[in-house]
Every structure is written in structure tokens, then in C-alpha cells.
Write a structure and sequence with these properties.
Structural class of chain B: alpha+beta
Strand order of the largest sheet of chain B: 5-9-3-16-13-14-15
Order of helices and strands of chain A: EEHEEEHHHH
Helix content of chain A: 25-40%
Structural class of chain A: alpha+beta
Mean pLDDT of chain B: 97
Largest sheet of chain A: 5 strands, mixed
Mean pLDDT of chain A: 96
Oligomer: heterodimer
Distance between the termini of chain B: 52 Å
Number of helices of chain A: 5
Shape of chain B: globular
Largest sheet of chain B: 7 strands, mixed
Strand order of the largest sheet of chain A: 2-1-5-3-4
Number of helices of chain B: 18
Radius of gyration of chain A: 15 Å
Chain lengths: 153, 739
């Protein structure tokens, strides 16, 4: 079936199967592999996108249900080669190792700072607790967000 | 963060430079193996055994072949070459050979036009099984002599006795590496009967060696390429889908992509060996260790993989970083019908560090001595003999300096914050601050660096000066740890230019770099890059009579005598090396000898808050001091320490695969718990820089050390808080409550 999704500001029409998730549609049909597929159960946050203003796991949204929606992915976060402050801070603080969780963190994290520009440490931990990182132990990710919010060094 | 290391050079050793692949990773453009695709590609899928032990009575692929869009269905009969593969011992069938020996063993593979059709076709294959009794009890396997290797260590006087004796039995559960990136492979036919294979791996050359034998191909017909890797931690040390995706591509003449989903990943790679350990420690009244005896059983599952090396490590590090002249260790890696075990960060030393550190705490209790004081009275130093192999410790071993550095880190405030997010049980609001008991625990560890036991361990690298800058060529696998940055930093410092690019070569372009495991790439590939860079620099200086190489050319007594264009007038200048660490030897029949090339140590202190009534734990802080030799990239070191600690915390309080009758009951991220941001403790780190005897600038590998004693430190802290005699990890609520 054809669905119309506004992805990173561009209206796209895509033919999706009934069983297909939004994550699959983004990665396999819309050629946007930046959104990562790591668990397909909504547990790890690697596939986080902004869906009609909400930060959520795209593996838990049926592609067919995304008809008429507006979706932002990691590919839409930087503009004209300028990194988003969260992306810049993640690089500066060494918060990227294997990087598989990174798209999910930058999308969820940039959304967090929009709804709460000055989160406390427990608020950062809680807001990003749906994103699993297996490499860093989260320390550098925390420092990156504290840098962006002016709390860090 | 960048500082100058020599005039004109930025981003050399000792600086926290950014990863060259970082920007592509934060923008989502970095291509992981699972992101690769082409217009005409097929998707592969795998049919797996639903039984831990069964005889294949019937395998009918016809129903799968009738499905529209299915291009190939392959079984063991279709394996072109040798039917068995394995890194150390070739004992595993590429596809089921008539007997399934573990739950999830691959039986058949399918290629189809799309992913869903491939999976549907795999499910349509008709299989009939005769159930056989699975051997799932490692003790039974040991009793029956079903083992991959039995290690015996006998040192000193069997009759020696101490006046204070403690005995204990300990267990560690099966831990999964759970890297976020799934197993993935992309095979592309070259039109000449061969293939280019892009795979997730920790060592493409050892994969290549196994693949060509099973495909009956000449070495140059198959080229293994590194593909973007989303973490590894040991899970990619062994073959998973590599041969399958290659077979499907050869059979169809089309590019084929295979990616495991999470549940398949849990059965598709080897895991940390679960262990059962019995220990007896004897000490004199001053706390000096007199004798240590241990019996270790590690369950290797159905196939060998790296079990032979893992059990050796478990045995050699069974006493930990302590002097003891009388040692008796019997260690077996047993063969069962459980899921195969293999490499995971710490590689055998994790299990025995838990057992031996728990024993040291019990001994301290029996002696009424401070646990740290007991450790200080026994710790190893350079020049001492490793308690097990008896070899004199070569290289640096600053255990006491590491313990001093750890103790210099301030403890967190005693105040228990009344924020549910920071209390045991979290926002479930189950634990009031008034119910919380705090505990503090310590543990220390030693581990070998690089490969031991006479393994011919080397890494090749090539440094090339071009008019566009320096290229470093290697086939080492960057799995996230930051080897790419480290290679750049070393080359920049030696060659006097910051314009260095690391090129990941395939198996046909350069020789092996060895495995990205055993904490070895900093020293081995770092050492190879250093030697190649020094060789290139000296070659260029000799050719032009110079005394210094800088970013713009060769200098003699401060004057430029040859520009980069002049240096490269006859083309790029190259220097290729094969770097080896000091020779190691096989142990004798008593486990004695110069078995290891070098050692690394670290220490951990854990602070935990426990609700003893509900059995809930919050790990508040884990501090560490780490022996690093020389800090090449301080920020990357902190990343390894924090990340490694969290995997140790995971094993201490939550991570375990529940395996019942050989069947994994929790192969999902919903049921296999991994520490989240809210579970992660604060971490303070200190590094001790005492240059080692091999490796670039005295640096040591530190990938595994942070994980090893983090686990017993957390358990010691929970014991301190609760008084419970905890003997198994992960520690679960029922262990704390005592039901």
C-alpha cells in the first residue's frame, strides 16, 4: 500500500507491506539507514525518530500507520554541514565508540533538550534510559549533554 | 583538547583527539555491515534446530523452493569444500550434518528476493527430528570426560599447609556480549567465480582461512573486507554467517545480504563460558598465601571455538595478582549440548577473578584483617613469579601503585539522596531512602596481554608517504574501541605530520593484523604502525641525508632539504612490517613455563546502595585505577574504563542468559537485561603510566582489564552492605533476601 510520510521535511510516497515497521520503511524503502535496527522490540532505542513531535522507537510503529505523519531522523538533524550541538558535544566528549547507538542518542537527546533545555543529571539519565549503549558506560554521553546544557566542564 | 606534541604536529600521542570516523557516526552516514545493499541483491535467512540434541530424520527443502521469489535453499550436502569449520579445532558443521548438537544450530539457509520471503521459506522447510537426550550438566560432562581441554597446574609443595583456611564454591552465569550491531554479511560475486565478502568480524584473516577451506577456493578467490562494526566484545571472534552468505552468493551468482535479528544474534554467536569453581585458600597468620587449590569447570557448549584458550586463561589467572608458591589447579572446558561459548572481554580471567577475589575477602574475614591490607601483603610485582605458571613477570606490573591510585579517589557523599531515580528499584518507588544500606567493596586483577602459549602472534602494517599525506594500511578490525585514532596518533608523532589516514585493507591487500581481542591491538597493531612509521621515516631521512621529517619535508640541521613532492618524486614511499611480541612458550605438563608475553593490572572500588528487605541494588559508584603503560589517547582510555566497568556491573547484578535443557529462554533485549543509563554508576578513573617492555611508546592494551575486577568489587560491596555470603553472579534479589 502507498503511504505518504514527510521525512526530514520532504514529502515521500512509499509502497509498504502490511507487516512492515516504520523502521524497515526508513531503512529499506526510503534509503535512510542512519536509523539503526538492533532489537526490534522497543528496548534499545537505536531506531529512535521524532514522529509527529514525539520521540519514539520506529520499530514499534507500523509503516502503514505512519501515513500522513511527519518524521525526523538522524539524517535530518544537521543542516548545511553544521552539526547539531548534541552531535558536536558527543564528538568532543568521546561519547562515540562503535557508534551503533549514536543516532538514537542524538535524536532522543536533541528532543530532550527541546522539551527541557536544562535537564538535571537524573533527568538526563531518565530521559535517555530507553537508549542502550554497550560501549561507553554512558559517562561520556552524560558529559556531552552536560556540556550542551552548560552544566559540564 | 588537542595539544602540540612536537612543533607543527597536532593530534599525536598523549592527546585526546577526535575519532576520524566520529562525524559519520553522529550524522548516521557511517556504513555498518547491516547497512550495505545493492539493487540486485538477495536476502539470506537461516533455519535452525529447535532442539538441543536431535537426529535429523528428514529434511525436505521442496516446499521452500516452491515459494515465489526463493532463489536457493542450501544444506550441508551443498557445502563445496570441507564440511567442518572452527578457529582452533575444525569440529562444527557448516550446516547440520545429521545431528543437531545445540539449540539454534543452523540446518539450512535460503536466499530470496526479500527478507520476509527468505524467512518464510526457511520456515517452510520440512524437518523431522528424533529427540536425543541432551547433556546440559557441565559436571556430568566433566565426569564423563567430555572436554575440549583439561588444564593442570602443579607448582610448589603439595604438602604445604597454612594455619588459616577458607573454602568456597562459586558460579558465574552465561553472559552475552550483546553488541548493538547485529551479525551481518554482504557477499558480492566478482564474475570470475570468486567473491568479495563484507563481514562483521574481529579478525578477517582467520575468518578467510576457514571460509576458503569450506568453499574449496583458492585464497585469492575470496577477499574478506572489514565492514562497519557495531561493537564486538568477543562475539565476532568466531564464524557466524560468513560461510552461509558466501555459499548463497556462489549458488545464485547474485549479491546476498544476511543480517541476524536480535533473537538470532543471541544463538548466532558464542558467549561467555558459565563457570563452576571450587577454591581452597590457605594462609599463615600474617595473611601470606601459603597454598591455593582450585577446581574449575567452564561449559564450552557444543563446539570448541576458543574454549581451549579460555580454559588456559582461567587456569593461569586462577590465583589472581598474588604471590603464592604452592598452587594446584585443575580446570576443564567441558563439551555439552548447551549453546557454544567462546570469547568475551576478559576471556576466562573474569570467572576466576570472581572466585579468587571472593576467597580473598573470606580470608580477610577469617584473619580479621582489612581486605585491602590482605591484598597488599600478597600482591605481585615485576620480577615475581606468576603463582600458576611460575614464570617471572616480564614487563611492568604496578599493582601497588594502582591500588594507591585507587585509594586516592574520594568516596561519594554518605548522603542517600531521596530521589527515586537514584534509589534501588528506581522509579518503581519501592524503596524509601531510610531503608537503604550502603556497602563498599574492592577487587583487583591481572591478565595477560596478547596471545600466549607459543602462538605465532603478529600484526602487519604498511606506512606509505604520498603527496597527499601518509597512509597507514592494516587489516586490523576497528570495532569501536578507537584503534583508528590510536594508529593515526602514533604515525603522526613518528612522521611529523598530522595528515595521516588509516586505510582498512582486505585479506588480499595485506597480511594478518591478528585478532581484535586479548587486549592486543594497542600493542600489536599499534606496535606494527609504530615500526612501519619509524622504518618509513628512516628510509626517507636516509635517502635525503636529513635529520628530521616534518609535514613539509625533510630537514637537515633546521633547513628544508627535500619537499614532500621531492620525497615522492618516484612515487609513494612505503615501509611494510610484521610486528611480533616477545616469544612465548607452551606450558609443560604441570602448566609451568614462560607462557605469557606481558601483563596488565587494575583495581576497582564499588559503592552500592541496597534495600535488604526487597533485595534491590543500585550501584552508586565504581572507581578504578588502571595500569596503561603509556596513555596514547587519555579520553579513549576513560571510555574503555567506563564501558568495561559497566559490562562488569552487568554481570554482577543483572546479566545472565537463562538456559534450560539447552534452550535459551531469554534471547531478547526485553528479557536479557543490560544496564541502562539509570543503572550506570558514576565512575572516577586514575591511570598509572609505567611503560611496558613491548608496544608503542610503552603503551599497554586495556580493553579487558576494566571488566574483570569490576564484578567482584560490586559483589563485595553488596556483601558488605548485607552480610550475605554471595557466591554466584549475577546477584539476584532472592540471593540478597535469602530465599
Amino acid at each position: 500500500m502507498n503511504v505518504t510520510i514527510t521525512v526530514n521535511g520532504t514529502e515521500r510516497v512509499v509502497d509498504v507491506a502490511g507487516h512492515e515497521s516504520l523502521l524497515h520503511a526508513l531503512r529499506n524503502d526510503l534509503d535512510l539507514p542512519g536509523t539503526k535496527d538492533a532489537c526490534e522490540q522497543g528496548e534499545c532505542g537505536s531506531c529512535t525518530v521524532i514522529f509527529d513531535g514525539e520521540s519514539l522507537c520506529s520499530c514499534l510503529v507500523m509503516a502503514a500507520d505512519a501515513d500522513g505523519s511527519t518524521v525526523s531522523t538522524v539524517e535530518g538533524l544537521s543542516s548545511d554541514g553544521e552539526l547539531h550541538p548534541v552531535q558536536e558535544a558527543m564528538l568532543a566528549e568521546g561519547a562515540v565508540q562503535c557508534g551503533f547507538c549514536t543516532p538514537g542518542f542524538v535524536v532522543a537527546g536533541s528532543h530532550l533538550l527541546e522539551v527541557n533545555p536544562h535537564p538535571t543529571e537524573p533527568e538526563i539519565r531518565e530521559a535517555l534510559s530507553g537508549n542502550i549503549c554497550r560501549c561507553t558506560g554512558y559517562g561520556a554521553i552524560l558529559r556531552a549533554f552536560e556540556t550542551v546544557t552548560g552544566e559540564g566542564s | 583538547m588537542t595539544t602540540l606534541t612536537k612543533p607543527g604536529v597536532k593530534g599525536g600521542i598523549g592527546t585526546s583527539v577526535r575519532r576520524p570516523d566520529g562525524k559519520s557516526k553522529v550524522t548516521g552516514s557511517f556504513a555498518y555491515a547491516s547497512d550495505l545493499s545493492s539493487e540486485d541483491m538477495l536476502w539470506g535467512a537461516t533455519l535452525r534446530s529447535p532442539h538441543a540434541h536431535a537426529r535429523l530424520l528428514k529434511l525436505d527443502i521442496a516446499p521452500a523452493l516452491t515459494i515465489s521469489g526463493v532463489r536457493a535453499v542450501l544444506t550441508q550436502d551443498d557445502v563445496p569444500g570441507e564440511p567442518l569449520f572452527g578457529q582452533e579445532e575444525q569440529d562444527q558443521p557448516v550446516l547440520c550434518d545429521g545431528i543437531a548438537r545445540y539449540w539454534g544450530e543452523p540446518v539450512a539457509v535460503v536466499a530470496a528476493d526479500d527478507e520476509e520471503t527468505a524467512r518464510r521459506a526457511a520456515a517452510a522447510i520440512v524437518v523431522e527430528w528424533e529427540l536425543l537426550e541432551p547433556v546440559v550438566d557441565p559436571d556430568r560432562a566433566a565426569d564423563e570426560g567430555s572436554t575440549f581441554r583439561e588444564m593442570k597446574v602443579r607448582r610448589g609443595d603439595e604438602a604445604a599447609v597454612g594455619s588459616v583456611v577458607v573454602e568456597g564454591f562459586y558460579e558465574t552465569a552465561t553472559q552475552d556480549q550483546a553488541p548493538l550491531g547485529p551479525e551481518a554479511g554482504f557477499a558480492i560475486p566478482d564474475g570470475d567465480g570468486g567473491l568479495d565478502l563484507y563481514i562483521t568480524s574481529q579478525w578477517i584473516h582467520v575468518d578467510h582461512r576457514q571460509i576458503i577451506v569450506c568453499l574449496d577456493m583458492e585464497p585469492d578467490q575470496i577477499r574478506c573486507h572489514p565492514a562497519g562494526i557495531g561493537g564486538a566484545f568477543g562475539s565476532r571472534e568466531d564464524i557466524s554467517l560468513h560461510i552461509h552468505v558466501a555459499m548463497l552468493s556462489l549458488a545464485t551468482g547474485r549479491p546476498v545480504k544476511m543480517v541476524y535479528d536480535r533473537s538470532e544474534s543471541f544463538v548466532g554467536h558464542v558467549k561467555r563460558h558459565p563457570s563452576r569453581m571450587w577454591y581452597r585458600h590457605e594462609a599463615d597468620e600474617d595473611g601470606k598465601l601459603v597454598k591455593v587449590k582450585a577446581r574449575l569447570i567452564l561449559d564450552g557448549g557444543a563446539y570448541a571455538h576458543t574454549s581451549r584458550a579460555v580454559i588456559a586463561n582461567a587456569a593461569f589467572f586462577a590465583v589472581g595478582p598474588y604471590n603464592c608458591d604452592n598452587v594446584e589447579v585443575d580446570a576443564s572446558a567441558v563439551k555439552t549440548n548447551n549453546p557454544p561459548a567462546g570469547a568475551m572481554r576478559g576471556f576466562g580471567a573474569v570467572q576466576t577473578c570472581f572466585g579468587s577475589e571472593m576467597q580473598m575477602d573470606r580470608l580477610a574475614e577469617a584473619l580479621d584483617m582489612d581486605p585491602l591490607e590482605l591484598r597488599r601483603r600478597n600482591v605481585l610485582a615485576a620480577g615475581d613469579r606468576l603463582a600458576t605458571s611460575g614464570q617471572i613477570i616480564n614487563g611492568s606490573l604496578p599493582m601497588l601503585a594502582v591500588m594507591d591510585a585507587l585509594e586516592s579517589i574520594p568516596l561519594p557523599s554518605d548522603e542517600i539522596e531521596d530521589d527515586p531515580r537514584l534509589l534501588p528499584g528506581g522509579t518503581g518507588l519501592t524503596t524509601p531512602a531510610s531503608s537503604v544500606v550502603r556497602g563498599i567493596g574492592y577487587a583487583i586483577n591481572v591478565k595477560n596481554l596478547a596471545f600466549s602459549e607459543a602462538f605465532d602472534d603478529f600484526s602487519e602494517a604498511r606506512a606509505v608517504m604520498t603527496t597527499d599525506g601518509v597512509e597507514i594500511h592494516t587489516a586490523a578490525m576497528e570495532v569501536g574501541q578507537g584503534l583508528v585514532t590510536l594508529c593515526q596518533q602514533i604515525a603522526r608523532t613518528v612522521l611529523g605530520t598530522d595528515d595521516v589516514e588509516v586505510m582498512w585493507d582486505d585479506t588480499s591487500s595485506i597480511g594478518s593484523a591478528g585478532s581484535t581481542s586479548a587486549s592486543r591491538q594497542t600493542q600489536m597493531t599499534g606496535g606494527a604502525v609504530h615500526a612501519a612509521s619509524v622504518g618509513l621515516r628512516d628510509k626517507i631521512l636516509d635517502a635525503h641525508g636529513g635529520d628530521e621529517l616534518s609535514y613539509d619535508g625533510v630537514y637537515r640541521r633546521g633547513e628544508l632539504v627535500a619537499t614532500i613532492d621531492q620525497i615522492c618524486a618516484e612515487g609513494p614511499v612505503k615501509h611494510h612490517v610484521q610486528f611480533r611480541h616477545p616469544e612465548t612458550f607452551r606450558p609443560d605438563e604441570n602448566g609451568q613455563g614462560d607462557v605469557h608475553a606481558g601483563f596488565v593490572v587494575s583495581a576497582h572500588r564499588a559503592v552500592v546502595d541496597v534495600d535488604p528487605e526487597l533485595g534491590l541494588v543500585r550501584v552508586v559508584q565504581v572507581d578504578t585505577a588502571q595500569d596503561v603503560g603509556k596513555a596514547i589517547n587519555p579520553q579513549a582510555i576513560v571510555g574503555q574504563l567506563e564501558g568495561g566497568i559497566l559490562q562488569g556491573v552487568g554481570l554482577a547484578v543483572m546479566e545472565q542468559l537463562v538456559i534450560d535443557g539447552g534452550v535459551i529462554k531469554n534471547p531478547t533485549f526485553t528479557d536479557y537485561l543490560i544496564p541502562t543509563f539509570l543503572d550506570a554508576p558514576s565512575v572516577e578513573t586514575r591511570v598509572v603510566e609505567e611503560g611496558d617492555h613491548f608496544g608503542p611508546f610503552g603503551a599497554k592494551g586495556i580493553g579487558e582489564s576494566p571488566t574483570i575486577s569490576a564484578t567482584p568489587a560490586v559483589v563485595a560491596a553488596i556483601r558488605a552492605a548485607t552480610g550475605r555470603d554471595l557466591t554466584r553472579v549475577p546477584v539476584l534479589p532472592e540471593d540478597i533476601i535469602g530465599i
